[in-house]
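ESCALATION

Customer reports they have been waiting on this structure for their group meeting. Please prioritize. Original submission:
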Amino acid sequence: MIHAQNLVKTFGDITAVGGIDFDVRPGEIFAFLGPNGAGKTTTIQMLTTLLRPTSGSITLDGLDPAIRPLDARRRFGIVFQDPSLDHELTAYENMDLHGVLYHVPRRVRVERIQSLLTRFELWDRRDSRVKTFSGGMKRRLEIARAFLHTPKILFLDEPTLGLDPQSRNQLWTHVRHLNETERVTVFLTTHYMDEAERVAHRIAVIDHGRIVAQGSPQELKQQTGTESLEQAFLALTGTSIRDESANSADQMRQVARMWRR
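Update from on-call: job pushed to the front of the queue and completed.
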């Protein structure tokens, strides 16, 4: 479903991504893990047409996003760290607007909105303004909205950041259900190693712009001789603290520009 070959992105003299290769299978939950500044965000931006690779190739569901960006964008949904909901609109209105932008037919839109809001336990709050929602409710609404146009791929960039354990557990329960029932391929990043270990079928670990390991959670633990994914991650990437890369707001602005091109 996703194929990256010798993918490179440079910014002047800085190499953010240095020739990586990976494949994500249809219907798979694939975790892309790495420390801050490792190249995760740059890779996602290339996969979602927000950045053009310096070299290398990408295919999404058989499409080259550099050649057919609009068709590629219709194949995926995105949920970034920073919220992108309109807080003055209701939950239903946010969903409906997304469906209109993606040209989902009205009859399909109505049925799909009810189904997804029910699945994410928000149907009874469909007429409430988003500004009255808790953080967990907003995040569930964003993910429900990302599923509305029936994407084949869902990109989740730190989707549970700042949520309490109950909200995180509930959110992943819903995502896994839709992954299983609709066979949506999920590409996620997270700093919560416990949830990556619990939900991901396979994992790629990136550090300093290069993939240092790939495999199932169990395989990564076996490769590093460790007992948990967090221990395996630290064995692969070291224990030094990395600088925080605060660019998610820029990501959302790029998403808005993406559709205006």
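Sent to customer with the following note: Strands lie at 2-11, 14-24, 29-33, 55-60, 76-79, 153-157, 185-189, 202-207, 210-215.
Escalation resolved.
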